[in-house]
């Protein structure tokens, strides 16, 4: 790229997270207490997180993958039950269903949100459907009202995978509180991070009690050990206090970039739905492939220019682990004689077609980090690179 007019920046963008004295003090406090497994810090974090999102109950777990599995278990979803999931997400949002011996049924996403919609869900409902796992990708809220109404009407459980959506809201109500259970990841990359961790929220006392029981050996039934540690909770409490300020930086950066990209034909920042607060776990930029080439090419050229653009997830129905070639394939539902719906399944998940999300993933969307302390100078740098690349690629 040395002979290109594209401005090249050799300074890496700041990493996430940057931990400091407050986290250090929290960890030292736990060590001084001689109590490492779930106790007072976990209980305090759960209370503070429940207050933050406005839920009655919160339960800390070891990570969101455990949390999604636990949520399904607490809702009694298991053998032969179908759960509708999006293809555009991290593998855990669908593998958790297999972990419960249920069947993940993929549905297409909505172009406005890149999440499931009431229409795409409804098209996949059968008499075996028990639940929907809705993912608010990159902190852009899904269109919840019609989805909640559909789930109520059809008697389906709703689990929100809000791993990317700490602090996001829909019509003033916090994401994660619309379904039967909301699941948040606290992994190191997430906006509220403790290293590895997860937190579940619910308003239902019976579900909260099942989550509590199943998280910790069960006592009366076979279950799991999915507890959070005191160290994770203590760090979570510190990070929760700064979450809104961190989200403000993400939002400001995304909006700045949006304004700058408005002047460049063929690229645009994707905005959250009106009446929602998106929190930009990453900001999504949409490329018009007919005007500036595909998002994959564009992202590669941005990286050459020192702008850390990524395309993290390709549609999950094509993932090799959902299309195993070796038998017996764990979680390959149509090869499993107990699953009564297997005759309707294609030979491989990859044979399914989801035109909307395949088009977005294959050709249109790329991601940029906007976490603090990334600031206006990085957004200007990104916009300059976008402008130069778009000009060169213009068709
Ligand atoms: C949408 C989504 N759901 C679930 C998870 C799983 O989270 P964890 O790493 O806490 O298990 C992730 C992790 O990246 C994710 O992005």
What does this structure look like?
By secondary structure, the protein is of the alpha/beta class. It has a domain at 21-237: Type I PLP-dependent aspartate aminotransferase-like (Major domain) (Aspartate Aminotransferase, domain 2, 3-Layer(aba) Sandwich). The chain has helices spanning 21-33, 40-53, 64-74, 92-99, 118-122, 144-154, 205-215, 230-261, 289-292, 295-304, 355-364, 376-393; strands spanning 57-61, 82-85, 103-106, 129-135, 157-161, 169-170, 173-174, 181-185, 198-202, 267-269, 276-277, 283-287, 365-368. Helix 2 (40-53) runs parallel beside helix 8 (230-261) and helix 3 (64-74) crosses helix 7. Bound molecules: pyridoxal-5'-phosphate (PLP). Residues 63-65, 89-90, 92-93, 135, 161, 163-164, 185, 187, 198 line the site of pyridoxal-5'-phosphate.
CATH architecture of the domain at 21-237: 3-Layer(aba) Sandwich
Q: Strand-residue fraction?
A: 5-15%
Ligands, deduplicated: pyridoxal-5'-phosphate
N/C terminus separation: 20 Å
The run of helices and strands is: HHEHEHEHEHEEEEEHHEEEHHHEH
Q: What's the number of extended β-strand segments?
A: 13
What would you call the shape?
globular
Rg, Å, rounded = 21 Å
